[in-house]
Design goal:
By secondary structure, the chain is of the alpha/beta class. Helix content is 41%, strand content 20%. The mean pLDDT is 91.
Length: 245
């Protein structure tokens, strides 16, 4: 993507921006990447009070950063937090594959129903741009997490055609495996190695597309800049076999 920093600065300057799941590893990186562009206000929305506390301490000298405790599953919370917002980055999700397999309806409530709550609230409150963060596991999904993100992508694409949507543009970005994000494989392998445990490799011939957290955040910001309606933005990523890792 060819957007320069000056383009992004003009786009985000003086905007009110909401980041759902903003205390997670991806959400926090999006927040940090937005700060140099001088938005009027960044709202960090998340249901994890401990992460809220830690992140507020880390960014205590950022007067334009505001924190709101709430759950994407709650219509009232989502409708309230999207008022007077220009741009939304939707990073709130259940993303751990084994946990979603064990709790499939919980994944549905967050990744599907929570997404629909956000869509309806953004249309109601006249948000201009909404970027949904998805995953390559949404392609021909074989597990619950991938299936819920597959449906979520469909919801965000179809939202552009809703009869009551006069002003809001929706798009998605599709991540590969984000290196170093919370719960990703490299920190797990490192912890297992430090403790003398065997590495939990399902199949050494398995391959994965990978990206850094910085690449993921920049892709997301540029998607907001380029969004017209209904696109899915994908970074050209490197891939490797687990045995090489």
């Amino acid at each position: 993507m060819l957007a320069a920093k000056s383009d992004l600065h003009r786009f985000f300057k003086d905007q009110n921006i909401l980041v759902t799941g903003g205390t997670g590893s991806i959400g926090e990186k999006i927040v940090a990447s937005l700060l140099p562009y001088k938005p009027k206000r960044i709202l960090v929305f998340s249901r994890d009070d401990s992460k809220h506390y830690l992140m507020k301490q880390k960014y205590r000298n950022e007067p334009h950063l505001h924190f709101h405790l709430g759950d994407i599953r709650s219509w009232q919370s989502v409708e309230y937090i999207t008022r007077d917002v220009d741009c939304v980055f939707h990073a709130a999700a259940l993303k751990q594959v084994p946990i979603c397999e064990d709790n499939p309806f919980e994944a549905v409530k967050t990744n599907i129903i929570g997404s629909e709550n956000l869509i309806e609230a953004c249309i109601l409150n006249g948000v201009k741009t909404v970027v949904n963060i998805s995953t390559d596991k949404a392609i021909n999904p074989l597990n619950t997490m991938g299936a819920t993100k597959f449906i979520s992508e469909k919801l965000f694409r179809q939202a552009n055609q809703k009869l009551n949507n006069m002003h809001t543009r929706f798009c998605s970005v599709r991540f590969g495996n984000v290196l170093g994000s919370r719960g990703s494989v490299i920190p797990i392998f490192l912890e297992q190695a430090r403790n003398g445990q065997p590495l939990t490799v399902t199949d050494e011939n398995m391959s994965r597309f990978v990206m850094t957290i910085e690449e993921a955040a920049q892709l997301t910001l540029k998607a907001a800049y380029y969004c017209r309606r209904g696109e899915t933005f994908i970074l050209r990523m490197n891939a490797f076999h687990i045995r090489h890792l």
